[in-house]
Amino acid sequence: MNDQGDMVLDLRGVRCPQPVLRAKKALRNVPVGGALVLECTDPLTVIDIPHFVNQTGHHLSDQSQHERLYIFRIVKQR
């Protein structure tokens, strides 16, 4: 959990498709309206995570990059 109460999933060093599969599993434990933050190092996640969010109907509320760390904040919609 971070300061906002979001669940944080550390996926550093994890290669695709694992970040998407782990995010899907972790979202089961997030309440509707809650957020899941993914911390990834695989550059392919900048394609895969937004695509996953669009397919599942959730909301990608933030996406940023800090050097080689890609951070995504997914808000669960349903």
Describe the protein's architecture and organization.
This protein has a single domain, classed as TusA-like domain (Translation Initiation Factor IF3), CATH 3.30.110.40. The model has no long low-confidence stretch (mean pLDDT 95). The chain is globular. The chain has helices spanning 18-27, 45-56; strands at 7-11, 35-40, 59-66, 69-75. By secondary structure, the protein is α+β, with helices and mostly antiparallel strands. A four-stranded mixed β-sheet has the order 1-2-4-3, covered by helices on one side. The chain is built from two helices and four strands, in the order βαβαββ.
Note the topology.
Blueprint: E1 7-11, H1 18-27, E2 35-40, H2 45-56, E3 59-66, E4 69-75
Parallel strand pairs: 1-2
Antiparallel strand pairs: 2-4, 3-4
Please mark out the parts with pLDDT under 50 across 5 or more consecutive residues, or reply none: none
Radius of gyration: 11 Å
Q: Which term fits the overall shape?
A: globular
> How is the largest sheet built, in terms of strand order?
1-2-4-3
Helix run count: 2
Give the strand tally: 4
CATH class value: Alpha Beta
Query: What sequence of helices (H) and strands (E) makes up the elements?
Result: EHEHEE
Helix content: 25-40%
Distance between the termini: 20 Å
Name the CATH architecture: 2-Layer Sandwich
